[in-house]
Request: fold
Amino acid sequence: MENNFFILLTAFMPLFTALATLLLVTYNKAQRWVGLIGGLLTWASSLIVLGQVLDIGIQTYRMGGYVPPYGIVLVADNLSALFAVMGSTVMLAGLMYVLQSREKSVTYPTFLPLFLFMETGLLGAMLTGDLFTFFVFLELMVLSSVAMVAISDNPFGLEAAIKYVFISGMGSLFLLLGIAAMYTTFGTLNLADMAQQLATGDRPLLARSAAIMLMSSFLLKSAVFPFHFWQPDFHTTAPTAVSAMLSSVIVKVGIYMIIRTLTLLFTEEAAQLQQLLIVLGIVGIFFGSLAALRTYNGKRVLAYSTIAQVGFILVAIGWGTPVALAAAIVYAFNHAFIKSSLLMIMGLVASRSYEHSVDFVDIEGAGRMMPPLIGILWFLGSMSLAGVPPMNGFISKLGIVQSGVELGQWIPLGLAVSSGALTLLYMFRTWQRVFQQKKEVKLKILAYGDGMIAPTFLIAICILLGIYARPLVIIAEQTALQISDPQIYIDAVRLFSGG
Reply:
């Protein structure tokens, strides 16, 4: 369908809501409620778009009525629509958490607008069909998250934000150089149009250079080893609602563009790049898992864990078959809900500590003095992250195993599966230290349900996607088949744009 209004609504409803919250800077509670309503509308519209894509086919919206490749077009195919649903759902949970949060940073008048600007950048980056517009959305997302980390309650928040600004600048530079090389070569930045020209088999020198620069940028944005060095400090010091987004859906923007680049643009170079992704994925799995096992802070455990979990996704992308791509999509989708819920639970622990800390030295045994639901939610989330049935993490790991068996990739599969024991070790070690250790800790007394709605909502989704996984698996399989043939995307965009 051409000019589908719901695509525009999904991408820009958070922006309109952010502008509305700027009018309520002196009414913090009202800001939070308006933000939540905007998040609900965004979530609903993303579900509508996904339903239309699955029922009718690829949807587009031409910005300003201009015909691509000269104008900007928003495109919702199976991949972008599914990732938009993932992003809007987790961001909605983040807004639920903000509504009940007691962190000082969420009371600042600029926090809610920045949070919604971050959501605009996230969803816009996934729905745009133009490479430069992707850069604009990405920078909006990055700058918003940097500002929120800078105003964090954590005294090291400003330092982490400054570090990331400089490191992210390298990724942005690679991205801009790649964009410039593509425009110089093809005279367009429309993804479908570039893909059409690349499909001819002609590979100018700048095009190959652009592939390297773009992939470097996406790997850095995804915190892939060895581009991960900014991630632990930045994610650990962020306000809980922000860190829950950073480690779950924000890193998925890079993953989304890696998939899009390999399956749409650089299909001839994909085989070489995929071999690199397998190596980086395996190394990242073990590095992230071992670092999580040895760290001293609850949030830092989860930050390093993200490096490991992204490694699993990269391995599946590297294998590159439709079955493997479907497994990567399912893994990315499920991981978003698992990781965001666990970070919110760790935030609940911190909110009851007088030091507002999740260093193990400060929170050992604290879970025994908290409502039992917090410990139960952490246990369920840990099971899911480790891939224990019947949680959705088991479905994710099962897809990886099936992909590796189908291809006979026994060595990388064996290494990936064996690392699951490390995930069990660091997650249940954390659970034992925080929720089972017998140690007296002074805690703040808060209302029983204070802050629990959002993580409960996300863990419920994890259980649902574990017990009733077939619909997601079917959609992922359809998505993998669709993106495996780039001509489907090209023809749909060119058809709706009059090409």
